[in-house]
Amino acid sequence: MRKYSSTIKSRSFLFIELKNLCKCYLDGVDYSELKLKIINENLFQTESENRRRELAPTVLKRLQALDSFLVNKIVSRDTGTGKVIAVFAIEKTDRLFHDFVTEVIADKFSVLDTYLTDRDFEHFFESKGQQSEIVRAWKPYTLYKLKQVFIRILYEAGFLKSNSSNRELNRPLIDPEVRNYLLKIDSLSIGRCLA
């Protein structure tokens, strides 16, 4: 089982970066060449080489979490569909975010509770703190930043109508073929958010 980590604080959504990497991969650039392309050709258009080196492993890991069907669809389908696929990739590479989507967002959708509250985050982090010494050791600022990043990812992907204090949940409209595929391969987490 993967350990909990707070690295998502500095990595966030990275949808455009993931989509660009998927395009390169579909164009025949293999994984070993992709990292060089990110750093040497500034594929992500970042200001510093340090930032490119920081983002490269994260986005490559997200790409590797996708099968060929989803890599193709993130490039060939509408932006909304691509963003949901990006959330799926984040879920597959970040245990804490996966657990949040499964235990909070998917559960809220299943009981028709349409608002994501600060208390939802507090309960989630308290629960994770009881299960993990790593989470229990995090400072309040780390939890605050994680909350902000989770909200931003969910908002940018269309799972929230607003990222302000009035955070109403939304089921994004995506390509039906991709929706059905995600329901089939991940029925407990993102699939429940789309059902």
Automatic annotation (TrEMBL):
| Recorded superkingdom | Bacteria
Q: Which InterPro entries match?
A: BrxA (IPR014948), BrxA_sf (IPR023137)
Name this protein carries in UniProt: Putative inner membrane protein
